Amino acid sequence: MLKTDGVTIRFGGLVAVNKVSIHVRKGQITGLIGPNGAGKTTFFNCISGVYKPSEGHVVFDGKNIEGMRPHKVNAAGMARTYQVINLFRKMTVQENIMVGMHSRLKSNFWSDLLRLPNQRKEEKFVREETEKWMEFVGLQDMRDHEAGSLSYGKQRLLEIVRGLASEPKLILLDEPVAGMNSKEKEEFDALLRRILNLGVTILMIEHDMKLVMGVCDYVYCLEHGSLLAEGVPEVVQNNPDVIAAYLGGDE
Amino acid sequence: MRMLIQLIITGLALGGVYSLISMGYSLIYKASGLMTFAQGDILTVGAFLGLTFYRFLKLPYIVALLLTMAVAFIIGFLLEKGVIRKLLNKNVNAIYIVLATIAVSYIFQNGAQAIWSSKVEYFPSVFSTDSVAVLGVNVQPESLLCIGASMICMILLHFFMTKTRIGTSMRAAAMDSMAAESCGINVSLNTGITWGIAAGIAAIGGIFIGPMYGVYVTLGSKLGTKGFAGAVMGGYGNMYGAMVGGLLLGLLETLVAGYISSELRNLFAYIILIIFLFVKPTGIFNEQAIQDV
User: Fold this and answer.
1) In this predicted complex, what is the ipTM?
2) Is the pTM of this model over 0.90?
3) Separation of alpha carbons B12 and B112, rounded Å
4) pLDDT digit string (tens) for B145-195?
5) Integer angstrom CA distances of residue B82 from B29, B95, B280
């Protein structure tokens, strides 16, 4: 699904991500862990087109996508969420999902204005789709609420379905449970399973070790921009380097 | 009473043109976070284009209107792509881009003078009669056209921004460009379209006001600063605020000119601007000048 090969990015003299190669397999949940400042989000930005890697390749679904603009990456079938929630705060829940569907819609100004038949069909389609996604995360009673007025956890859920609304093949989740309450957290692995059942592959940055160890099929650990360890959760969890990195790098 | 009706109609006609300019400022501010000084001069260019199509080429009024809008749209789009975007890509301070728009403003003014004329050109009347009676008062039919057409523009723009896919994506891009990009929206193209629309509506303002004021090279620069004042009054960056602010400024200014002295009208308009900046910088529509986090 997604392969990176020696992805490196430098800001001036600083190497933020150093020769990182990962492989995200179709239909799996892949985890990306590491201490704060390890370069995880920067690495996400290299994949999703926010940054162009200084070196290395990003191959998504058989195509080279490094340096492609983010909206093209989205159109190619990759959605993402952000560590700092990036919703359209003054738009309603439903409108946010509608924007998420952007790359799937075709209407233009005149067909919207003149209410042409194909336009009405599309409008109905949009209504049904947004309804479906709101139900997917239990936001259907809040369709007309401004996104910025939702609780932190609900905003996270909305950001995820906004991403899913583009019907991606892969979704990148950047710390999806940060700010969620304990009930929302508990329900989250079930939500991840339901996303997988839609045929969407998941790559996720997460600090919540219980969640990562519980749901991920494969885990990569980054430290100081470099890959420190990889493997199935149990292996990575017991890797002495990983333990040292998390405990503060005591030699 | 007659005088009041007369003044209200004249004021709303002028205010309608201010609104068309104000909306452009607000759209551009929302999409790019920038202020442009070229907005008024695009109105001048629009007026001259309208003159060319309508008076010189003798095209039907509506065709002249649409052609002017289309040409102005292209000018606005190219201005964003060719000047603004180029400077943004150099990562210069925003103030340099604003300064660049001042240069563009003078290029438009002097360009218009070189291409067309340095005199006041008359814009032929659109209707065959010189006046129509409204509530027992005779008014120039063009001022009614101006009021009606600017209202229609506002309504169309409202539907465009809220009900269409492009409008929704433009609002999304203005709210959070990075999130919009990752939703598949081409933010750079959107910004260009926004500048194009801003130019298009300013240009038709030029066609509407032409028959009332005549067409000359500094026509737009005077109206442009008033449009700016209207945008601030409404809440800078708020499209609806710009509509209301522009109309209100035109109305108040005309009433001052009619009842007190026409020499005080500009003074009055700019004093209102300063008062708003001090007392209510968020304007009538309470638009937050600083984004909440």
Assistant:
1) 0.81
2) no
3) 28
4) 889 988 998 899 898 888 888 888 889 998 888 899 999 999 999 999 999
5) 18, 17, 36
> What are the φ and ψ backbone dihedral angles of A82, each rounded to 5 degrees?
-115, 155
Return the sign of the alpha-carbon dihedral for residues B113, B114, B117, B119: positive
Q: Is the CB of residue A152 less than 8 Å away from at least one CB of chain B? A: no
Report the mean per-residue pLDDT for chain A. Answer: 90
Please identify every stretch of chain B with a pLDDT value under 70, giving residue numbers as ranges.
288-293
- Candidates A159, A198, A151, A197; CA nearest to A175 is A159
Q: Under a CB-based contact definition with an 8 Å cutoff, are residues B125 and B211 in contact? A: yes
In terms of CA atoms, which chain B residue is nearest residue A76?
A: B184
Residue A237 has pLDDT above 80, yes or no: yes
State whether B166 and A108 contact (CB < 8 Å): yes
Pairing assessment for the beta strands A201-205 and A29-33 based on DSSP bridges: parallel
Q: What is the pLDDT of residues A130-146, one digit of tens each?
A: 999 999 999 999 999 99
Instruction: Give CB contacts under 8 A, 24+ apart, made by A242-247.
Output: A242/A33, A245/A34, A245/A35, A245/A221, A246/A35
Write out the residue range of the structural domain in which residue B185 sits. 2-292
DSSP state at residue A21: -
A175-200 in b/e burial notation, b at 16+ Cβ within 10 A?
Answer: bbbbebeeebbeebbebbeebbeeeb
Closest Cβ opposite residue B186 in set A71, A86, A90: A71
C-alpha to C-alpha distances, A195 to A22, A29, A87, B133, B174, nearest whole angstrom: 21, 10, 20, 67, 30
Residue-level pLDDT at B142: 86
**In chain B, whose CA is at the least distance from the CA of A161?**
B183
CB-closest option in A88, A90, A166 to B184: A166
pLDDT in tens, B75-84: 999 999 999 9
Q: Using the CB atoms, write b or e for B33-47: b if 16+ within 10 Å.
A: ebbbbbbbbbbbbbb
Provide the domain count of chain B: 1
The enclosing domain of B263 has a CATH number of 1.10.3470
Beta bridge partners of B121: B215
- A48: CB partners within 8 A, 6+ apart: A70, A73, A78, A80, A172, B182
Task: Output the pLDDT for position B132.
Answer: 85
Residue type, B260: I
Q: What angle do CA A85, A88, A92 make, to 5 degrees?
A: 120
